[in-house]
Amino acid sequence: MRFLRRPKANSRCIAIFCGAFHPPTVAHVALAEAALQRVDDVVWVLPETFPHKSYEQVPLAGRVRMLLEATGMGVAIAREKLFFAIAEEASRELPRVEVRLLMGEDGATRIFEWEYGMGEEEKAAYLLKNLARYPLLSARRDAGWDLPQSYAEHVEWLELYQPEVSSSEVRKRIEAGAEWESLVPKQIRERVAKLYGSSGQFRGQ
């Protein structure tokens, strides 16, 4: 794991916040700030490559710059791709620090519904083993999704007002020429405009 900004030196417990951040939104920031009520610092992490998508349109370097400008929290690039593997990578780099995983409910859902290439019993054992080591912090968005009860003790739901904002909505508004600035942190509005273009044509870096 390569840190562009390391977590605070006195941190005993951190949250690893994995995502595509395409681009970072005010909802991302709200979730990270809520997590600071439970941990000493948050590290926003982008993987070198994604397991289910690619760095199309805005590449890794452009997204890292947005994260560094959007927040004063930690920022890192991971060699691993999957959530638990990224958490383990962070633990190797920060051996005296307790690591939790931070994500929105869509990410949490993906953890439990992902096809890991194993049978149901093996998958359950794999999830319980990793959740015991790297508990989840998340926030409710979809009242219709129920966390399997067998995993409930390893997931902590954060209480926050989570704006109904997504990165895809930001991109959609930019492409349509609609107002999008209020959906992203003010620190990166100029950067987002340069990277994504007012006409919706992505400009890379």
Short descriptors:
disordered C terminus; 205 residues; 36% helix; alpha/beta; 7 helices; seven-stranded mixed β-sheet
Explained architecture:
The protein has helices at 26-35, 60-70, 83-93, 105-113, 120-133, 167-176, 189-196, and strands at 2-5, 13-18, 41-47, 74-78, 98-102, 136-138, 155-157. It is of the alpha/beta class and 205 residues long. The two termini are 22 Å apart. Mean pLDDT is 90; it is low at 199-205.
Order of helices and strands: EEHEHEHEHHEEHH
User: How much is the average pLDDT?
Assistant: 90
How are the strands of the largest sheet arranged? 1-4-3-2-5-6-7
Percent strand:
15-25%
Low-pLDDT runs: 199-205
Q: In this structure, how is the largest beta sheet organized?
A: 7 strands, mixed
Set down the secondary structure blueprint:
Layout (H helix, E strand, L loop, with lengths): L1 E4 L7 E6 L7 H10 L5 E7 L12 H11 L3 E5 L4 H11 L4 E5 L2 H9 L6 H14 L2 E3 L16 E3 L9 H10 L12 H8 L9
Parallel strand pairs: 2-3, 2-5, 3-4, 5-6, 6-7
Antiparallel strand pairs: 1-4
